[in-house]
Amino acid sequence: MTQLVQLNSREGLEERLAADGSIPGLFHQVANESEFAMRELETHPEGWSFRPQLMTAGLASSARETTAFNESIGASRVHHHFRRMRLELQDGLTPQAVLNNDAGSDEHATQPISAIEFEIPVDRPSAKFTVTPASHGVSPKINSLSLPDDPEAFTTEVTCFHRTTAPPPIPSVTGYPFIHVNDLYITKERMTIISDITSCKNLFDYADSQRIYNQEEGMTSGGFLLSGFDDVEGPFTSRRSESGIDLFDADITFLRTDRAGNYHTYKGRATYNPSLTPVTMPEAVDGYGFATIKRALPDTTLTGAIFMVRASSAEDIMGNS
């Protein structure tokens, strides 16, 4: 049962970091493809939180492993804030190490930035739209869409994910049923962002919620996208992934400065996947961070989760096989 909580909190916006600072640094990206229940779900005007519980054993080979993982991941609440956004960059963004011509930089720091996370300012205008409700098996349809005349620029701290070369897999660890997905080098910098994609986040999130609803009602998966956006002109394009998830692409511009104060402009395309939700675990002490949950089922069930763990401390956190 969902409980409405009246609070104004930044939980879900600020990532918990280890005592050593962790960033910049190399992280293992690991995934668990089991199903999770969203227990003790609470909502508030700016987001929601819940306590995860592993429902299926997934990669775990025994009930003992499932119990161990539940005790670890369920020890603290998971928080999401509506103003936290993650974007994939279709063309890599030049890293600061290259802009600054830093000789002897960590090789990972010189890799292009492939994804970013950031906080959308509280005063950032959002898309306004009206929807005709679903009826008699017909999917909802957008009647109107209104956006600011021009994309508004805002400056914020951006978490940058640099994709590295393919790493060797982490050995299977008893009690922690993970797949090693990738290695990512993480940095932070302040950037100015100009794009309508941030104003449309509420629209994209609504579209994804309707995708889940349509599945629950036995309608065609993604019917909202097909019928809802055909007649609506917006500063974005939509496409269907192989797994049936609706992805949204839009132009984006970054204004950045190097160490010498020189300005650098980047223009490209960014992709938003509303089915992947960045969350935080502020109370956790397990060493996992930058978590993302995947939701594809119509109830309060997650279909997987992705975590990151600092490479230098991975063995201490996850143990040895």
Overview of the structural elements:
The strands form three sheets. A six-stranded antiparallel barrel has the order 6-7-10-11-13-14. Strands 1, 3, 4, 5 and 17 form a five-stranded mixed β-sheet that branches. It has one domain (3-313). The model is unreliable at 171-175 and 215-228 (pLDDT under 50). It contains five helices and 18 strands. The chain is globular, with a radius of gyration of 20 Å. It has helices at residues 63-73, 96-99, 201-216, 223-228, 314-318, and strands at 3-4, 25-32, 36-44, 47-54, 78-81, 84-93, 113-119, 128-132, 141-146, 154-163, 179-194, 237-240, 246-257, 263-272, 276-279, 288-294, 301-302, 304-310. With 321 residues, the chain is mainly beta. Helix content is 13%, strand content 41%. A hairpin with an 8-residue loop joins strand 8 and strand 9. It starts with a strand and ends with a helix.
The main β sheet shows up as: 6 strands, antiparallel, barrel
Give the termini distance in whole angstroms.
39 Å
What would you call the shape?
Answer: globular
- On the 0 to 100 scale, the average pLDDT is 78
Q: Low-confidence parts, pLDDT < 50 over ≥5 residues?
A: 171-175, 215-228
Number of domains: 1
Cα gyration radius (Å):
20 Å
Question: How many helices does DSSP assign?
Answer: 5
Order of helices and strands: EEEEHEEHEEEEEHHEEEEEEEH
Spatial sequence of strands, sheet with the most strands: 6-7-10-11-13-14
- Report the sheet-strand fraction: 35-45%
Number of strands: 18
Class based on secondary structure composition and strand pairing: mainly beta
